[in-house]
Amino acid sequence: MSVILETTKGDLTVDLFIKERPKTCLNFLKLCKMKRYNFNRFHHVERNFLCQTGDPTGTGRGGESIFGLLYGQQAKYYEAEQVPVLKHTKPGLLSMVNVGDNMLGSQFFITLGDNLDFLDKEHCVFGEVVEGHDALLNINEAICDENHIPYQDIRITHTVILDDPFPDPPGLEIPIHSPEPTKEMLDSGRIAADEDINDMEGKTAEEIEELIAEKEAKARATILEMVGDLPSVDAAPPENVLFVCKLNPVTTDDDLMIIFSRFGKIVNCEIIRDRQTMNSLQYAFIEFDNPKSCEDAYFKMDNVLIDDRRIHVDFSQSVSRLQWKGKGRGVEFVGKAFDPNKEDYKMKDQPKREQSKRISSDDHPKRYAPQQRQRDFQPRDQYRGGREHREGRDGRDRREHREDRDGRDRREHREDRDRRDHREDRDRREHREDRDRREHRTDRSDIDNRGRRGGERDHREDRYNHDHREERHNRDHRHQSDRRERDHRERRRSPDRSHKQEDVSAQKRIRRSSSPKNSHRTK
């Protein structure tokens, strides 16, 4: 069985446990039907724990059950159902508030966290939210005071019963329209639920910009505190320390102290250096004895030329000298802090550990003498000679830079020439390869043509020889056939004559062979 609770943060669809909690579900459904939850506000909201409502007075001490409406004050509360046991294991569970002695009225709460087991034996679970968890998240993120009362009202505007399996008890008069909220119910002293909160209303453009900048600074400070860069959100840098950057690497602490001492007494002047090489990192911190001197130096020394460099001056934003004393115990300023109520604000009994945080200008030459140039600690009467030495060194540096630039130009010119030669060689090689390919194609086409013409001529010669041989063979065969036929005819006519002729021919051959000429030829 479902009920929709319409709130100012969104709608919640609730399924009731009819079988496990029939009496509690009857009480809740009939109160919804009587519109007793309309305009009730969530008077108690604890993040990731619960949000409580159901009290028409909004104080957390009012409300009565449906039985009190029907039968009077003696039935204002009813006894809670404990069997079966339903536990508070997840967000979105509806549970009736136990007013004492295991008695229930009209107030209920919705869980906003997991595993709230300590509520199981005291409060009675009777339903759960199945839709509208986004509205629950909005309620959970409401901004509340120290008593967990939201600064802006969150109210139930209307209840809709989707299904009611219980018959109405006798004497229950259901209103036709939703009742109008009373003045006492709406006058909670908080921001109204439908009121538009505008912090910028009635303020000028400058005030709005200042407010936005303040909020952004507060957000950044909160992030820095979360990552551990700030000891506290409210931590502020000292007002008597000046930050100087874009320094020349040859500028020393004594130089800065002499230049800035005209604005007031300098307590500490330190150029930040690399830990290993002790070379200047080109920025410094200058601490004055009062904020007024620091402010005068800020307005006068910005963009001033020192050692051929335009420096930049600003108020220090470093909080490295603020030591966090622990949660809820604030911060402590390590070192010399400005106190306008004292003539001498310097800490006389300063521990050695705190003194080691910063090194005075008098002790600086002793500590960093091996790493400094010899010029840095010469007497002031030789400052002119030091300047001439620095100018000579700067000129040497410029010459070396010019020589390096010329060498780089020569290298670039040589590299360009090599690239040009390589490109020309490649072009010549490609041209030669193209020419060879064209000649090869021409030779091959000539060979193909000659081969084709030679093949035709050979074919004609072969065919001519073949025809000639066949013709000669046919002629010989024809002659032989004619001779055989003639001999055959002659033998048939006169065989004796033929024998005689053969004898005559044989005698002729013998005489021819026995003649002197043939014998001489034989010898």
From TrEMBL:
Residues 341-366, 373-474, 482-506 have a biased composition (Basic and acidic residues). Gene3D superfamilies: 3.30.70.330, Cyclophilin-like. Keywords: Isomerase, Nucleus, RNA-binding, Rotamase. Its EC number is 5.2.1.8. It catalyses: [protein]-peptidylproline (omega=180) = [protein]-peptidylproline (omega=0). Residues 341-523 are annotated as: Disordered. One of its GO terms (cellular component) is nucleus. The keyword Nucleus applies. This is Peptidyl-prolyl cis-trans isomerase.
